[in-house]
Amino acid sequence: MSDEATIEARDLHKRFGQTVALDGLSFTVSPGQVTGFVGPNGAGKSTTMRVILGLDAPDGGSALVEGRPYHSLRQPLRHVGALLDAGALHPARSGRNHLLWLAHSQGWSARRVDEVIAQAGLQSMARRKAGGYSLGMRQRLGLAAALLGDPPILLLDEPFNGLDPEGIVWMRSFLAELAGQGRAVFVSSHLMGELQDMADHLVIIGRGRLVADTSVAELVASASRGLVRLRTAEPARAATVLGEVGATVATTAADTLTISGLTSECVVGLLGQRAVAFSEVSVHRATLEEAYMELTREAVEFRAAVAEEAPR
Hints:
By secondary structure, the chain is an alpha/beta fold. It folds into two domains: 7-79 and 151-221 and 290-304, 3-Layer(aba) Sandwich (Rossmann fold); 226-285, Alpha-Beta Plaits, CATH 3.30.70. It contains eleven helices and 13 strands. Helix 2 crosses helix 3, helix 3 crosses helix 4 and helix 7 packs across helix 10. The longest helix is centred in the middle third of the chain and has 16 residues, at 165-180. It is elongated.
């Protein structure tokens, strides 16, 4: 895949009437990694994706795919595969016929259709009417359609919706595999646990503005803040001992303390010196959801006063 397989948003602005959907949004999606796109409902995620794909025109700024506006791409499905609405299909057509219709519109063969059906794990359902598909199967069909042109860029809006646990594991692994092939994979999702296990990078927005553009590892490390988790049958004594040397200690459960200001090695040493019994000392690693909530808690307007997008 080409190093030029990028998405670049430059100072995007978009209004729907009096509602500000995008307010100077800028970021880059790079090849070879999964970039998660997160933010509260109404933050502007769907509008951003529609602007990238030329479905909505920005009032200001630009969105570029491989350095060009989407509408200037020849055979755009060979450059960008998109899944915005898993329900956008003819319910009376079989899944395979839906894909054949798309493929024939681009001059592609039935063989390519069967290849993406296999990639998406749709073999057993391909000849059934798509109107009878579950949401999870429609997601797989939409992903198969996005892959038809073997594009270097994939843009997926909430692809985990409707998937059962097995489907979520499969989707997570498959998208990571596609990124490993050098593709730029841009995924909007509200399932932070899935992004933590899959995404390399995060773009976080609120009210159409950029909140953070960072790696998952950096965001989680920042939220973890070097905290140490201690399990002990003597929480009061442990808190006193650790507090005497300046540590900040918080009780998180009847037998569990969270400590800041000391390394885990220091905690073990101090408790050993004072004969305070304990069963576990570990470095706390924040979840991505905790990191996200910590970040957005400092920007209350992004959480509680989000602008609503126009109905899409």
